[in-house]
Amino acid sequence: MRMPAGQITVAEPTAAALVAARFPQWAGPPLERSGGLLDVPRLRGHWEDVRDLPRGESPDVMSHTDLMPGTLLVREGRITGVLDAGGLGPADPALGLVGAWHLVEEGSRQALREALGSDDAEWERGRAWALEQALGPVWYYRDSNPPMSRIGRRTLRRVLEAG
To answer: Tell me, what's a Pfam family for it (predicted)?
Structure first.
């Protein structure tokens, strides 16, 4: 669920500048360390395509920032709670779409997109955020937390299959 940021003031740099600053440091090292684990040339090519997507005109909204398995409580197939709100804050509305890539397979993801009314630009930025978030866990948690590494792999598969 997206909530308007309302009266929250975000100090410079802007959200777009933060994305631009974070992308190289979050995508570069994981790609460098993922040889033999991932299709690095393909992922690097996709990263090159999405890293400079324009921020868009929409104002920042309140965002959890990383809805993914492990941050959700589920009972009888329904989300009943959200954990780990330490990153909650104003952000690009597209950041709220990462859950579509971390949690949902294609058919249901398309239905979610339609229900949310996400335009092409916002949807692609959401996919870019999911790519950024999924790269690190694959290599970082390979030995210490294999389920988390698999979550990253699954998200990357979804991101690449979509385009």
So the answer is: APH
Tokens 């709100």, located at residue = 85
- Least confident stretch, 23-32, 73-82, 99-108, 115-124: 23-32
Q: What is the pLDDT of residue 22?
A: 52
pTM score, whole prediction:
0.79
Domain contains 119: yes
Q: Domain tally for the chain?
A: 1
Distance CA 129, CA 123 (A): 10
* 133 closest CA partner among 19, 13, 42: 19
Whether 141 maps to a domain, the answer reads yes
